[in-house]
């Protein structure tokens, strides 16, 4: 059954499509899919909404209720050239754990959705980023196989009121939901703020590379033919 509306839409779209010599409609031009996603997740502990555009300009609008996490995600969107909006409210009266972990989870899910079947992307990316005395490497493979190797030892328990341990939880949730392999390796560092910020910047640059288009590629970069 076709409604009046859908017939009208069909007529409208047909008008724009050129007719081949035999009167048949020429195939519609292939539309480049928008590499973007919107994700919302609500539990009894948190409510997190995120909007992500992979081909952005680095605009971040971040509000999680955890100031240090806001700072890290602003930096992540800026240095990865991702447009990223994150709105989160959580049970911060308990502690920051649920909120930080769930923001990581929703961000990972947003990358997964924005990349779709991962066709046409470079898949691998790595970056080593300093922040004064801190130096951190991130290596990513958007492989469909969640695996985190977290080698970022931080002596200090707190950055202000933010527990440094939560960076590990954030990265684990992010990796699991993005379906990717991430190695984070700290080479040197003394100040915990510098260490974590170098890690987020390295992650941003590695993700920017891995999610960018490989023009020589058609389909997915895998001899298996799939990354799912
Ligand atoms: Mn900073």
What features would you describe in this structure?
The protein is of the alpha+beta class and 228 residues long. The protein has a single domain, classed as 2-Layer Sandwich (Ribosomal Protein S5, domain 2), CATH 3.30.230. It has five helices and ten strands, in the order αβββαβαβββββαβα. A four-stranded mixed sheet has the order 1-2-4-3, covered by helices on one side. It has a four-stranded mixed sheet with strand order 5-6-10-7. A two-stranded antiparallel ribbon has the order 8-9. The structure holds manganese (II) ion (MN). The site of manganese (II) ion has 3 residues, from α5. Manganese (II) ion (MN) binds next to α5.
List the helices and strands and how they pair.
Layout (H helix, E strand, L loop, with lengths): L3 H13 L19 E7 L3 E8 L6 E4 L3 H14 L2 E8 L6 H19 L8 E8 L2 E8 L5 E5 L6 E2 L2 E2 L1 H14 L2 E8 L3 H20 L17
Parallel strand pairs: 3-4, 7-10
Antiparallel strand pairs: 1-2, 2-4, 5-6, 6-10, 8-9
Bound molecules: manganese (II) ion (MN).
